[in-house]
Specification:
Number of strands: 5
Order of helices and strands: HHHHHHEEEEE
Shape: elongated
Distance between the termini: 37 Å
Largest sheet: 3 strands, antiparallel
Number of helices: 6
Helix content: 40-55%
Length: 172
């Protein structure tokens, strides 16, 4: 979140430098989206726009501007930069699980991590932070109480208190 805010501040500095907030019209904002979106993926444009639009909404609420110029804007983005995700079919998933189980060894934790993701839906950072103490084999549960921050390469508290939870896992 912090990186996203810093990134968006940089975008605002680049595209709106020297422009007063009261001088930003819908046409000006649309021009910004047209230019910015030319070489950015849809997800990047949407996230950046969401933060800027929210800031402009606050400016309206604070009486700094009368209306939000980011409302009713046509999103422009580079379709070639957008990712396409292919999901495994049910049969492919069954084959993967069978293959993972066939090669389980205590010294190969990646197979356990993939299975934990498949059976629990836990986030990758949560799975990376698990230790054997977090797994209760008798009650078939996994306790999620921390997350691995792969950017800073450390284990940290989860983002929200509701992220701490105990997940029931199938007995295998």
């Amino acid at each position: 979140t912090k990186r996203r805010y810093s990134y968006t501040i940089g975008i605002v500095d680049k595209y709106f430098k020297g422009v007063k907030i009261k001088d930003i019209s819908r046409a000006f904002y649309q021009d910004f989206i047209n230019e910015y979106g030319k070489n950015h993926a849809k997800n990047t444009v949407v996230k950046t726009t969401r933060l800027i639009k929210s800031s402009l909404k606050d400016a309206v609420a604070d009486g700094i501007i009368a209306k939000n110029p980011a409302v009713h804007i046509n999103m422009v983005y580079d379709t070639k930069r957008s990712e396409h995700v292919d999901y495994l079919s049910v049969e492919e998933l069954k084959t993967l699980v069978k293959t993972l189980f066939a090669g389980l060894r205590e010294d190969n934790t990646s197979r356990y991590m993939i299975l934990a993701g498949i059976f629990t839906g836990a986030r990758i950072g949560e799975i990376m932070a698990l230790s054997w103490d977090d797994i209760d084999f008798n009650n078939c549960t996994i306790t999620i109480s921390k997350s691995y921050d792969y950017m800073n390469k450390n284990i940290k508290e989860p983002k929200t208190a509701s992220s701490c939870r105990t997940i029931t896992a199938p007995a295998v």
